[in-house]
Amino acid sequence: MAGMELIAGFAQQQTLSPQMQQSLQLLQTPVAELRQMLAAELAANPVLEEDLPSDERADSVRERQESLGSNSSLQEEWREYMPQAASTTHYSSQDEEKRRYLFESLASRPTLRDFVIDQAAGFTDRERRVVDVIAGNLDQDGYLRMQNEELALAAGVSDSFLEKTLEKVRLFEPAGVAAPDLAECLLLQLARRGEGNGLAARILRHHLQLLARHRYEEIAKHFRVPTADVVAAAKMIATLEPKPGRPFADADEQGVIPDLIVVPDGDGFVVRLNEEDLPRLRISKEYKDLLAERGENEELLLYLRGKIRGARVFLRSLQQRQQTLLAIGNEIVSRQEEFFRHGASALKPLIMAQIADVVELHVTTVSRAVSGKYMETPQGLLEMRYFFTPGFQNSDGTAVSNEMVKQAIREMVDQESPRDPMSDQEIVSQLDERGLKVARRTIAKYREQLGILPSHLRKIC
Questions:
Q1: Better pLDDT: 66 or 147
Q2: In the chain, helix, strand, coil percent, each to 5?
Q3: Residue 316 reports pLDDT greater than 50
Q4: Contact criterion met (CB below 8 Å) for 262 and 333
Q5: What pLDDT does residue 388 have?
Q6: Percent of the chain at pLDDT above 90?
Q7: For all residues of the chain together, what is the average pLDDT?
Q8: Inter-residue contact 247 to 232 (CB < 8 Å)
Q9: Strands 260-265, 374-377: pairing kind
Q10: Domain 391-458 CATH (choose: 3.30.160.270, 3.40.50.150, 1.10.10.10, 1.10.10.60)
Q11: Can you give the residue ranges of every domain in the chain?
Q12: Could you tell me the end-to-end alpha-carbon distance of the chain, in angstroms, rounded to an integer?
């Protein structure tokens, strides 16, 4: 009979320092929330003060540089940590108080991203990291358009682990969230109602196009059921929500403030951080002098040392966030320069791993940095994740992005004859003539994403 025994051993385990916790939290925070986070830190740490323009002196820059110190060690720590990092952090009571202050001060409703992440409270650290990536890549309708392979790479997990976690996320509220397309979104909602294998679900799986055209009799013949049953199933489908992210749209729009601004500069473009209305923080000289005097009150000295140390960590983490965002923004502009000149038709395929290699960060860091953040560009206000898109191989060997294909579809439909609109197969043929091979089902998917009706519904008699 096997017995029980105790075995002693050694194991290495990577721990997350408070400095790294703060760095990750700041990195993930969009500029709209960063303003309030800085205000909360200013209120919580008495040695911090706002560096107002009227107070600037010749030595103010030197003081700020001294408080920031060198960030090279932080960068190295970040690079070593990120491949195994979890998105969750552990807060002290003071940290939690500041965090509560921050969120209570937010007047707007939570965004869809925040709402999804909050539902992963009982998940493992590794699963929460995946949820973080998934939530950050949801579009405004609540769909997850990115390929699973790229999501897995961004989260630093295997494809199978990503798929298992994604299955759990698709059980979250709002019903249908994180679906790749309309049919899957509605199927997820039917499954919640216990109708995952009913007639309505079968119609969605096999005859969504016929349903859109109200071809109920034709559907009934396919399934050998009464037409009345198909009509009833269609009515049930009509009660479902095709855009699960709709209730959060207003909250997302209210918080859209660009973190980066791209402006023309001579023959190229320059990327700038949006630091307008961000308070410039520094460590108060008065408190530094008080600490330097080394009075007899040892308790006060210990308190000041702790607060000054915390302020330096915070300022260094803030500096790290800004440098990381700027580096990623510069590389995006460098690779997508033709897009900024000519628009979506010139957008090139790009994945986060390509940016990560150049800026010498882990792909998870890049994913965290771009999640929920926007760039103001000559082509409009765009999410940073917009620039990360898979592509197709052209006949001449060059790569084109799926956004370029969508742009081509949109232009074809805009130029078509209203009396003789192009079918999906005709669009496939025209793209093929341009040297671009795209499957018909892909055209149908992109057309739906663009809000373009099927050809028979676009026809004007």
A1: 147
A2: 60, 10, 35
A3: yes
A4: yes
A5: 84
A6: 21
A7: 79
A8: no
A9: parallel
A10: 1.10.10.60
A11: 16-108+255-389, 182-243, 391-458
A12: 85
